[in-house]
Amino acid sequence: MIAELGIFFLILTLVFSSFGFLQPILSNISKNVLLFSQEKLSVLIFTFTLLSFFCLAYSFLVSDFSLNVVVNNSNTQLPIIYKITGVWGNHEGSILLWLLVMTFFGFLFSIQNIKNKDIKTKTLYVQNTLIFLIGLFIVLTSNPFERSFPPEIEGSDLNPLLQDPGLIIHPPLLYLGYVGFSIVYSISLAVLLFKIKKDDFVNVLRPWVFASWTFLTLGIGLGSWWAYYELGWGGFWFWDPVENASLLPWLTASALLHTILISSKRKLLLKWTLLLSIITFTLSLLGTFLVRSGVLISVHAFANDPSRGLFILLLLILVTGAGLFFYIKSGSFFPKKNNINLISKEGAISLNNIFMLTLSFTILLGTVYPLFSGVIFNTKISVGAPFFNSILAPIIFPLVIGMIFGPFLKWGNDDFFNLINRLKILLFIFFIVALFVWYLNFGGPILSIIFFIFSSWIITSSLFEFTKFISLKPKLTFKKVPLKNLSQLTAHIGIGLLIIGATGTSILKKEKIQFQDPNQIISISKFDVKFMGVNNVEGPNYISEMGEFKIYKKGEYLKSLYPERRFYNSSDQITTEAAIYSTIFGDLYIAIGDKNSLNDNQSWTTRIWYNPFTLWIWIGVFLLSLGGAISLIKTLRIKN
Amino acid sequence: MKYFFLVISLVIISFFFYKGLEKDPSIIPSNLIEKEIPDFKLNKTKLFPFFKKLDLLESKDLKIVNFFASWCPPCKVEHPNLIKLSEKFPIYGIAKKDSDNKIYNWLKKSGNPFKAIGLDNDGSASINWGVYGLPETFLINGDGKILYKHVGPITKKDLSKIFKILARE
Amino acid sequence: MKLFITIFFLIFNADLSKSVEPDEILENTELEEIAREIGRNLRCLVCQNEDIENSNADIAKDLRLLVRKKLTEGESKKEIISFVHSRYGDFVLFSPPFRYDTLGLWIFPLIFFIFLSYLFFRRKN
To answer: How far is A497 from chain C (nearest CA, A)?
Structure first.
């Protein structure tokens, strides 16, 4: 019954969202067709999608095994929290979540106070049309309310890898980012489609770009953290197609939020801003296509179905085609502005755009290249981490250098020697910092030293710029600090910390893999790790082999860690749960393997890692999104 | 002109994606097709006739090399079809990480399609042949050239395909 | 020059070599280091996008042992990788070979970069 209600609400969503494109067409024929305003429609659509989503959540909660999704992705033994999050632990449910987020953004936009009513209505035309298309996709190819005949007595369980707190928050946040760009796309397409003749669209666009970017950053960061502590996945970043798919829109969106600075302040690159908005959402959709169609091999593969792939492909062509078509058609709609000088703030931001987009393009190319070369040359190649790592460095370095010096450049036209002259003190500080880092890291690989130096330069230059700014205005109180500077400071320091963390974790990590006897002590970095043995522990729906390790530092007891190997009852799967002791200088990361079959000595395979500065990655990601959030607050403040 | 460019690039890219949808990404082509059989070393069994690379090269007829193991469930699935194949062509079996007794017990129960069996104890022969999962089956012509590789259990449908390839030679 | 290359084409190995078993590890730490590097470049063929150092699959273990055996026998990194390549084809290599059909991987980003730079900094009028 509830399931029928769910599909009923879904169809209502479909019907009402179809007014998004029907209304403008119908109103051409007869002036009297007004039905509902687009604003009211958005509220209705959101409500119906939410109700439909609740119906699915309820079916999961009560383990309604007459539904296919529930049978395949849930189980009566499953803890309640994973019953609920299991809703988006599968293709059908997660696409419904996607739709929910999309209608949510439409709803938020419809209640936002925007002076230009024209932009508002027309954006909602586009947004509601997009919602209609996604809704159609769900109803036609991915109906979560499909019945299974006859109803099963027990479900086959949620993938044990997904039975993790990460599932509770990572997908919703990621979707808030991914799908948030749908409204950015809608605004841009509306501007191009209806030739809205005001450049104040940038101010309409801004809060949505910052909001979506902030969520996307958090979402990717959380996913990376999850992949780091879950041993079944390959570490905090390993260039899986799914990870790449989330990075592509993030990169173009990062370019976008730098460009918006120019376009709102200098009225430059207005068309480029629109194009970036369109590309960003297109890449979100492309990511979905790559992940859901099964054309690529990924560790995060969902159950695949070519008909779904075909539908998303059509959707992708439609959305991209419409965006680019109207982009070209608007032609010389915006007045051509002055040239951009390389050495100027605009120049620095343009360089940022060029490198960000080149990186995004290269990652996209590497991700889909096996597919294309398979079709053209009939070869089957792999493009993996070694390739991506090799192209990363030449692109990252110019970006980092731009980040260090860019903020000091003037608008319009600047001079190189003048810049160096202005930054004499900073260059001296750089020299001191480099020496200091060199001294601290003496004996480490040259690579890590270089990365540490560059990242500390980012941090010092950001702090330097900020203090310089404040010292110029002695009467400035903390509350009056301009949010623009604050957000740039936070985000750039975040990047600096991120690079330090990634460098430490990947280049300086130490490893000890061995058969460890109970009471045997393994020393790694400054820690002594004593193995206490393994106990069998029963969880709600698994049996676990839980190891106990006592951590000592200089003879002093610090903490006990309990890494596990879990044997899930209903799916016959094993997961390895690492245990981590995090400190500001590094993580102690312990995993337990098999009992040593060669001797009966009770020794076990233990894997102990020391990952320097891993915590800094997460702090960096947090600061990045904090920077985004501060910018968001700023743009919202402009409105009022 | 710009529109033309847009349409053309969209069409080309979506054509590739569409083609990609038809392909199964999990199929990996063998790198040894049309090449001579690779070098490999096997261990002898006590109970079955043994073979070496030279034996495969010297017999100038069509033959089949099958990688299997008694512990591998899909190998049992293809067993009846392997027996049918063995009625027309000699099959040389390479057992991966297996023991004499287990092979003997299994083949005694369900029939022996193999002309000769060698043991691949450390998996090195499998790597030399580019084998990545069990069972895998190679078709070899009279000159010792590999014609075709089949990955996974041989089904009835595969059987007719294999007969067709061998009939062409 | 060599330093330049290492800096610009460094390997960020974020993974933990989490499937290597204690009894597989070579006593010679230098050789083990090379073995890891080789392993990171070889794809586990039956897995979903994992290298052989990070996969529990049987074939991954066999390949790990083979790599280490060949290293102790004195073969070089290049020889070992090209041996595995000759048996399993291009798919096993995580960094694709430099060939006419893979040329696009390096050429297109360069073209893209030049095109974009032109778009931004060309002189109008």
So the answer is: 16
| A101 SS3 class | helix
Q: What's the whole-number average pLDDT of chain C?
A: 83
Q: Are B64 and B84 in contact (CB under 8 A)?
A: no
- 3-state per-residue secondary structure call for chain C: CHHHHHHHCCCCCCCCCCCCCHHHCCCCHHHHHHHHHHHHHEECCCCCCCEHHHCCCHHHHHHHHHHHHHHHCCCCHHHHHHHHHHHHCHHHECCCCCCCCCCHHHHHHHHHHHHHHHHHHCCCC
Is residue C114 in some structural domain? Answer: no
Residue C109 lies in a domain: no
Residue A12 to residues A18, A36, A240, Cα–Cα distance (Å): 10, 14, 37
Contacts of A591 (CB under 8 A, 6+ apart): A231, A563, A576, A578, A579, A606, A607, C18
Q: Distance (Å, rounded) from C-alpha A377 to C-alpha C101?
A: 7
CB B40 within 8 A of CB B128: yes
Cβ contact C88–B28 (<8 Å): yes
Whether C106 is covered by a domain: the verdict is no
At C119, list the tokens: 């778009």
For position A459, what pLDDT does the model report? 95
* Any A CB within 8 A of B3 CB: yes
Supply the pLDDT for residue A640: 43
> b/e string for B57-83 if b means 16 or more Cβ within 10 A?
eebeebbbbbbbbbebeebeebbebbe
Cis peptide before A398 (omega within 30 of 0): no
Q: Considering CB atoms only, which of B16, B18, B25 is closest to A297?
A: B25
CB atoms C43 and A384 under 8 Å = yes
Q: Any idea what the CATH number is for the domain that residue C45 is in?
A: 1.10.8.640
In SS3 terms, A185-235 reads as: HHHHHHHHHCCCCCCCHHHHHHHHHHHHHHHHHHHHHHHHHHHHHECCCCC
Reading the block at residue B108, the tokens are 């005694």
Number of domains chain C is built from: 1
pLDDT digits (tens, 9 = 90+) for A561-599: 999 999 988 777 888 889 999 999 999 999 998 888 776
Closest approach of C74 to chain A, Cα-based (Å): 24
For the stretch A301-336, what's the b/e string if a residue is b when 16 or more beta carbons lie within 10 angstroms of its beta carbon? bbeeeeebbbbbbebbbebbbbbbbbbeeeeeebee
Task: Report the SS3 class of residue A73.
Answer: helix
Question: Residue C92: its chain A contacts at CB < 8 A?
Answer: 382
User: For B83, what's the count of Cα atoms within 13 Å in the CB-facing half-sphere?
Assistant: 10
pLDDT score for C109: 95
Cβ–Cβ under 8 Å, residues A37 and A111 = no
**CA–CA gap between residue A74 and residue A87 (Å, rounded):** 9
ipTM, 2 dp = 0.90
Coil, helix or strand at residue B2: helix
pLDDT number for residue C7: 44
- Per-residue pLDDT reduced to its tens digit, C71-83: 999 999 999 999 9
Q: Which residues pair with B95 in a beta bridge?
A: B68, B119
Selected for mutation to probe chain C from B16, B132, B138, B149 (highest C CB count within 10 Å) is B132
CA distance A2 to chain C (A): 37
Range of the structural domain that residue C55 is part of: 18-97
Residue B115 DSSP symbol: E
Q: For each successive 10 residues of chain A (640 residues), what is the average pLDDT?
A: 92 91 76 72 95 96 91 89 91 93 95 86 93 94 88 84 88 93 95 79 91 96 90 79 92 94 82 93 89 72 70 92 90 64 88 95 94 87 89 89 91 87 91 90 79 94 88 71 86 95 88 90 93 92 93 94 90 86 94 80 88 95 96 75
> Per the domain annotation, does C32 fall within a domain?
yes
For B31-168, CATH number? Answer: 3.40.30.10
